[in-house]
């Protein structure tokens, strides 16, 4: 039996729930657009369609046990990719995928997606909006929305940095194209920050908006 096969354990809903209570990492590798619509509470999203391995290595604790939520037929691929970069504490995956969990009436969470034009319409009327740009510092310096905050996704393993957000803030999260922002939003959700939106299309779409005010940082 190979290492990947040893980790390829189908977990029932009951087993999955018990493991969640033991403080394992719940990793969801489905499509971003599918994840935001509904997911298991406390899940961290890192989708297979993006830089899955890079962000898994950056954001996940290799020593911590992991349980997987994947698209049907993508379970072994998810586990194999993780095994190949040293994640050997994978307990298994949710049998039947997220649909089984949802059909059983278990608790779910969601992330609200908004279009860039909705963000631009909301900005002048809501003083509590915080636009959180999770791109790299260099990307941010090259052009960003005026008054937005920069917290690179790679820094979000430092939970103390997330303590800066107030309960009354309406956080609009974006990256360059929409992949990293969903990862960031899932991390914020896991840490109890629920008043947030994911901006679809990211900076590539935001900068095309008519009312956008772009700043550049010439000191970086």
Outline the fold blueprint.
Blueprint: H1 3-7, E1 10-11, H2 13-21, E2 25-28, H3 32-37, E3 44-45, H4 52-59, E4 66-69, H5 75-83, E5 90-94, H6 97-103, E6 112-114, H7 116-122, E7 129-133, H8 137-141, E8 144-145, E9 149-150, H9 159-162, E10 170-174, H10 180-190, E11 196-199, H11 202-206, E12 214-215
Give your account of this protein's structure:
The chain has 2 domains: 3-103, Rhodanese-like domain (Oxidized Rhodanese, domain 1); 112-215, Oxidized Rhodanese, domain 1 (3-Layer(aba) Sandwich), CATH 3.40.250.10. Helices cover 35% and strands 18% of the residues. The protein has 11 helices and 12 strands. It has a 5-stranded parallel β-sheet with strand order 1-5-4-2-3. The chain has a 5-stranded parallel β-sheet with strand order 6-11-10-7-9. Helix 5 links the parallel strand 4 and strand 5. The longest helix has 11 residues, at 180-190.
Observed structural traits:
11 helices, Oxidized Rhodanese, domain 1, 2 domains, 220 residues, 5-stranded parallel beta sheet
């Amino acid at each position: 039996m190979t290492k990947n096969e040893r980790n390829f354990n189908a977990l029932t809903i009951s087993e999955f729930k018990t493991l969640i209570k033991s403080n394992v990492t719940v990793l969801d590798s489905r499509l971003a657009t599918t994840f935001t619509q509904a997911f298991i509470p406390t899940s961290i999203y890192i989708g297979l369609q993006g830089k899955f391995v890079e962000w898994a290595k950056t954001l996940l604790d290799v020593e911590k046990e992991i349980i997987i939520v994947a698209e049907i037929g993508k379970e072994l691929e998810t586990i194999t990719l993780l095994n190949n970069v040293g994640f050997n504490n994978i307990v298994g995956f949710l049998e039947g995928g997220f649909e089984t969990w949802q059909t059983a009436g278990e608790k779910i969470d969601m992330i609200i997606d908004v279009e860039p034009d909705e963000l631009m319409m909301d900005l002048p009327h809501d003083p509590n909006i915080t636009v959180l740009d999770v791109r790299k510092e260099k990307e941010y310096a090259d052009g960003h929305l005026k008054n937005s905050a920069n917290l690179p996704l790679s820094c979000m393993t430092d939970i103390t940095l997330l303590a800066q957000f107030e309960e009354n803030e309406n956080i609009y999260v974006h990256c360059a194209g929409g992949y990293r922002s969903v990862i960031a939003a899932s991390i914020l959700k896991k840490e109890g920050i629920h008043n947030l939106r994911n901006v679809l299309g990211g900076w590539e779409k935001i900068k095309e908006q008519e009312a956008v005010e772009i700043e550049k940082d010439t000191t970086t």
